[in-house]
Write a structure and sequence with these properties.
Radius of gyration: 32 Å
Largest sheet: none
Number of strands: 0
Helix content: over 70%
Shape: elongated
Keywords: Repeat
InterPro entries: PPR_P_subfamily (IPR050872), PPR_rpt (IPR002885), TPR-like_helical_dom_sf (IPR011990)
Pfam families: PPR, PPR_2
Number of helices: 28
Distance between the termini: 100 Å
Protein name: Pentatricopeptide repeat-containing protein
Family: Belongs to the PPR family. P subfamily.
Length: 495
């Protein structure tokens, strides 16, 4: 037996062989064993000790029990924690903390109904309503997509006279934003201030992120200034969110000013800061500045990741600089970074747009040899290149290969194929794809409808063109006057 295990063995042997002279002494020994097993990272042994303690008719204090519960849940042993919790009922004085820890474990495992039942049980047993319990459950409901349940819990806690705290309000705001209820989220912010609950850093971060997503930088900066007034210090994440908001709107100079302000306040740019700004420069066509910033990033000891290189390669591709893209790709590999699906797709797209389908397909084959599976977007890029070349034979083969792999075509892929067949004058193929697209619950775009209608009119199939115009109108799209003129001309020619 290893020396480190001897104390456990001796104590356990003593408990089994010696009569219990004083329950308090034995209880203390069990608590020592449980704590020791926790310190030695032995979750199952710790749980076994607590089980033996209960069998001996001894009652562990809530602090010991709660510590063990947390330890078991952290070790991903929910089933053991649940079993112990069930056995401990009516035998251990479980407190609000015990129920809260168990609820959090159930929520993390996605067992929201069980967590909710535990909350009901706690309150039915006379436990006072607890803000932390409600906030935990509301947070997990929002994150798991059960926003309606979260809303009911939020209303229920207020109905019980329980005032939500800044964390409760923030998780509800985040849930509103995540589920598309932006105005409701901002209403909660106003309510929060009205009832005297002060927003924290996380609250402001959630609100500013939503403003930037809605491209409302004016209100984002109003909130940013409010943070300063209330002495809530912005962190790197807050600055990154605002810098990204500027870059998304192409306001790169404002993003640069904010970076200087961030540094002036003693905050170091993070990897995300650099990636966002490099992406902003690339989108603005300032590829030289993007490369310069990446070099600064390396000089300051911040190593570029695969995301950084993907952003830069995409920038070179957008600028039609295939040499620059290839150099960035080589540097990435030299640094020991493995290309991802995104990397390959960006490069394939660059070659396809450069009308070099041979190189595009070589990269596609390299991607498959590397064990990476092409997704719908990768196939879409290749199909776009083939359709633009008028190579509909290979485009159709690739489309079928994609379907055989179980990948669902996007509406953009259908529209591109319809465009390709219409350019070839194949109304039969184009119409078939439109029908398939509608059957799959997608709506062709205006260009697809109009091209197909023109080809049908040209082929003298004005009845089918008329049917397609009606479908177009039913889908909420309006044909232009020229389409009606072509239909009228087709009717006159072929009657």
């Amino acid at each position: 037996m290893p020396p480190m295990h001897r104390p456990f063995f001796l104590v356990q042997r003593m408990i089994k062989t010696q009569p219990i002279l004083h329950p308090a002494t034995t209880s203390l020994i069990f608590r020592f064993l449980i704590d020791a097993h926790i310190q030695c990272q032995n979750p199952r042994s710790a749980a076994l000790c607590l089980d033996q303690m209960l069998r001996c008719g001894l009652t562990p204090p809530p602090t010991t029990f709660n510590r063990l519960l947390r330890f078991l849940l952290a070790a991903d042993l929910l089933h053991i924690a649940s079993s112990l919790f069930g056995d401990a009922k009516n035998r251990v004085p479980l407190d609000a903390n015990s129920f809260g820890v168990m609820m959090r474990g159930l929520c993390d495992a996605g067992l929201l109904d069980e967590a909710s039942r535990l909350l009901d049980e706690f309150e039915a047993g006379g436990g006072p309503p607890n803000v932390v319990m409600y906030t935990t459950l509301i947070d997990r409901c929002c994150k798991r997509g059960s926003f309606a349940v979260a809303q009911r819990l939020f209303d229920r806690m207020k109905g019980l006279g329980l005032l939500p705290n800044e964390f409760t309000y923030t998780v509800m705001m985040s849930g509103c934003f995540r589920n598309g209820f932006s105005s409701a989220g901002f209403d909660l912010y106003e309510e929060m201030k009205r009832v005297g609950v002060f927003p924290n850093l996380y609250t402001y971060s959630v609100l500013i992120s939503e403003c930037c997503k809605n491209q409302d930088l004016g209100f984002a900066f109003k909130l940013f200034d409010e943070m300063t007034e209330k002495e809530v210090l912005p962190n790197v994440v807050t600055y990154n969110t605002l810098i990204n908001g500027f870059c998304t709107q192409g306001k790169i100079k404002d993003a640069e000013k904010l970076l200087l302000r961030m540094k002036g306040n003693g905050l170091k740019p993070s990897l995300v800061t650099y990636n966002v700004l490099i992406g902003g420069y690339c989108k603005a066509g300032k590829i030289v500045k993007a490369v310069s910033l990446m070099n600064q990033m390396k000089e300051r000891g911040c190593s570029p990741t695969i995301i950084t290189y993907n952003v830069l390669i995409s920038g070179f591709s957008r600028a039609r600089d295939l040499v620059g893209a290839a150099n960035a790709y080589r540097e990435m590999k030299d640094r020991g970074l493995t290309p991802t699906n995104v990397t390959y797709t960006i490069l394939i797209d660059a070659f396809a747009k450069g009308n070099d389908m041979e190189s595009a397909f070589r990269l596609y084959q390299s991607m498959e040899r590397a064990g990476l599976q092409a997704d719908a977007y990768t196939y879409g890029v290749l199909l776009h290149g083939l359709c633009m070349q008028g190579n509909m034979k290979d485009a159709w083969k690739l489309f079928e290969k994609m379907a055989n792999k179980g990948l669902k075509p996007t509406s953009a892929i259908y529209d591109m194929l319809i465009y390709g067949y219409c350019r070839q004058g194949s109304s039969y193929r184009a119409l078939g794809l439109i029908r398939e697209m509608i059957g799959n619950g997608m709506a062709p775009n205006v260009a697809s409808y109009c091209l197909a209608i023109r080809i049908l009119c040209k082929d003298g199939k004005w009845q089918e063109a008329e049917v397609l115009i009606n479908k177009m109108i039913m889908s909420g799209l309006q044909p232009g006057e020229c389409i009606y003129e072509e239909l009228s001309s087709a009717k006159l020619r072929h009657r």
